[in-house]
Amino acid sequence: MASYRIAVVVGSLRRDSFNRQLARALQSLAPQAFELQTVEIGDLPLYNQDDDAAPAAPVVRLKREIAGSDGVIFVTPEYNRSIPGVLKNAIDHASRPYGQSAWAGKPAGILGVSIGAIGTACAQQHLRCMLSYLEMPVLGQPEVYLQYKEGLLTTDGRIGEASRDFLQTWMDRYVDWVKQHAPRREEGFAPHAGGETEAPRPRPS
């Protein structure tokens, strides 16, 4: 079995999203001991604090998958100089109820691709601020602001030659980051399942 399970959260719902393609391709850069699993966020209802006591099934699943992971990779586009609403909605869901965040302590990495000249730089800065507040140790370097160009991804879904070495360096750094912050998953061991994790407490609204 994999020694480390990494939840991959894609901030786009578009079927052929560049970021979704990038997320799928990342597994080829990860060592055998790391299993990357994409977490579905498109079926989540809009966050409503009234539902905290009886969350919908997709919310329960989201929190379980995040809590059961050893780390989280966010792959996000940039909308209007920030992250997409669907990603913010997922972050809010898994951080609540008050004091029961599934995100706390999970080593995080951030990547993103867009057609703009600065990639997803602004979105990533907003996301870093959120994740820091949620007590997620976030990999600082190298930063990955990819501008989509032909050849970034191959026709068979792999990382193109021009970006492969850079993204491999990022993956190697993220692997080391996870090992620094997450215990190795052994047979019979599972990360804290969530629901009791003390984390920054968003005040009731």
UniProtKB/TrEMBL annotation:
Which positions are tagged coiled coil?
none
Give the protein's cofactors: FMN
Give the region (Disordered) as residue ranges.
185-205
> A Gene Ontology CC term for this entry?
cytosol
Q: Which UniProt keywords apply?
A: Flavoprotein, FMN
Q: Pfam families, alphabetically?
A: FMN_red (PF03358)
Keyword Aminoacyl-tRNA synthetase among UniProt keywords = no
Keyword Flavoprotein part of the UniProt annotation: yes
UniProt domain NADPH-dependent FMN reductase-like: residue ranges? 5-148
Kindly give the InterPro entries that the UniProt entry links to this protein: Flavoprotein-like_sf, FMN_Rdtase-like_dom, NAD(P)H-dep_reductase
The GO molecular function terms of this record are: FMN binding; oxidoreductase activity
PANTHER family, from UniProt?
A: CHROMATE REDUCTASE (PTHR30543), NAD(P)H-DEPENDENT FMN REDUCTASE LOT6 (PTHR30543:SF21)
Protein name, please?
A: FMN reductase
Species, as recorded = Vulcaniibacterium thermophilum
